[in-house]
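ok trying this again, last paste got cut off
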Amino acid sequence: QVQLVESGGGSVQPGGSLRLSCVASRSIFSFSPMDWYRQAPGKEREWVGSMNSGGKTDYATSVKGRFTISRDNAKNTVYLQMSSLKPEDTAVYYCRSFSSWGKGTLVTVSS
């Protein structure tokens, strides 16, 4: 089972940007889709977006046009670039590969 470690969270003002990283313990992108999820305080975990093994991306309606998933195969790292952030984007963000989850990184959007 692969280990996943997220980083890059923090506090940002509305309209700002952040880039999250998810480092995998081994090379998996050639066969594994990579998903980003988030869980806001008091809410269910929700899907944010995915990149399949071929590099095709898909996004939740709530983040489409603002968030972008990319990856660096050489670094075993997938990224979530977040722009035009809103207070409702405040959540712990997780990456996932099949049944493996990272521990998450907290993003707080507040003025």
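PB: full thing came through this time. The longest strand covers residues 18-24.
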